[in-house]
Amino acid sequence: MNSFMRQLRTQPLLADGAMGTMLYARGVAVGHCLEQLVIDRPEWVMEIHLAYANAGADLITSHTFGANRLRLAHYGLENRVAELNAAAMRLALDVRERAARAFEHKVYVAGNVGPVGRRVEWADPLQQRVVVDAYREQIGLLAEAGTDLLLFETFSDLVELEVAVQAAKELCNLPLVASMSYGADGRTLAGQDAARVTTRLLASGVDVVGVNCSTGPAQVMAALREMQRAAPDGMFSAMSNAGLPERVGDRLQYPIGPNEFAGYVPPYLKLGVRIVGGCCGTTPAHVAAMREALDGHLALKE
């Protein structure tokens, strides 16, 4: 069994928080390709990874969410897929090695894979092949670079997520965490609820079914209840955003602070969550508060 999966079965793990939120706080212009910063501002990405590791994260996420060929094409960067994914993985793996020397616990790296960023007509074989090739390209690069697992997150099209998962299973034997984001009605764009999504993702062979982003931790909790009903013995991940943001000037401000956010950790764990972390609007302060809540929960079980 993979080292990550052995650890995950032993006890729940704490993931990091938002990367984009932290980069925007450093003054990155809205509309800039965030993935390009692994080349233009690698020290920023490294410092953010380190901040999450220092806050107690067991799992840091490579800065590759939008580093697939189709999404990079929005910025004219489609020919830099290999360069950007390799650079991002070097930064994350460097932090993993630093953490191994500095901390008593191991830090894992999740190779991050996001949606292709366009609507796909799955009945069109040509469109489907383009998407499959894009996923195979990125997943192959992440696996070759030495990631500990693959994290598919913020998907709203279940078919697209299943296609990405299938590409991964054909290319490697890495653990797979597959996470959907739901609308305010608790359903995907195609109308599936969390129970249906969970059943299909487990049938596709993923190791952990997740929910991330969405409208905040309360909605994530509702999704988790459906997920647990569908798979009582399943392993889940929960990485909510810090509530719905409000625009302040040219920036977004998220309403849920670290302590309130961390208050959701114990009930998440009771619903079968094995990986808990943050999405948009969360910071190292949120992760530090979650670390305290997670440790407190584990101490009560001893």
In short:
This protein has 302 residues and is α/β, with parallel strands linked by helices. Helix content is 48%, strand content 15%. The chain has one domain: TIM Barrel.
Task: Break the fold down into its secondary structure elements and pairings.
Blueprint: H1 3-10, E1 13-14, H2 20-25, H3 37-40, H4 42-54, E2 59-61, H5 69-72, H6 81-102, E3 108-113, H7 125-145, E4 149-155, H8 158-171, E5 176-180, H9 194-204, E6 208-213, H10 217-230, E7 236-240, E8 246-248, E9 251-253, H11 258-262, H12 265-270, E10 273-278, H13 284-301
Parallel strand pairs: 1-10, 2-3, 3-4, 4-5, 5-6, 6-7, 7-10
Antiparallel strand pairs: 8-9
Helix pairs in contact: 4-6, 6-7, 7-8, 8-9, 9-10
Q: What do these coordinates show?
A:
The protein has 302 residues and is an alpha/beta fold. It has a single domain (3-301), classed as Homocysteine-binding-like domain (TIM Barrel). 48% of the residues lie in helices and 15% in strands. The protein is built from 13 helices and 10 strands. The strands form 2 sheets. Strands 1-10-7-6-5-4-3-2 form an 8-stranded parallel β-sheet. The chain has a two-stranded antiparallel ribbon with strand order 8-9. Strand 8 and strand 9 (251-253) form a beta hairpin. Helix 7 (125-145) crosses helix 8. The longest helix is centred in the N-terminal third of the chain and has 22 residues, at 81-102. The two termini are 25 Å apart.
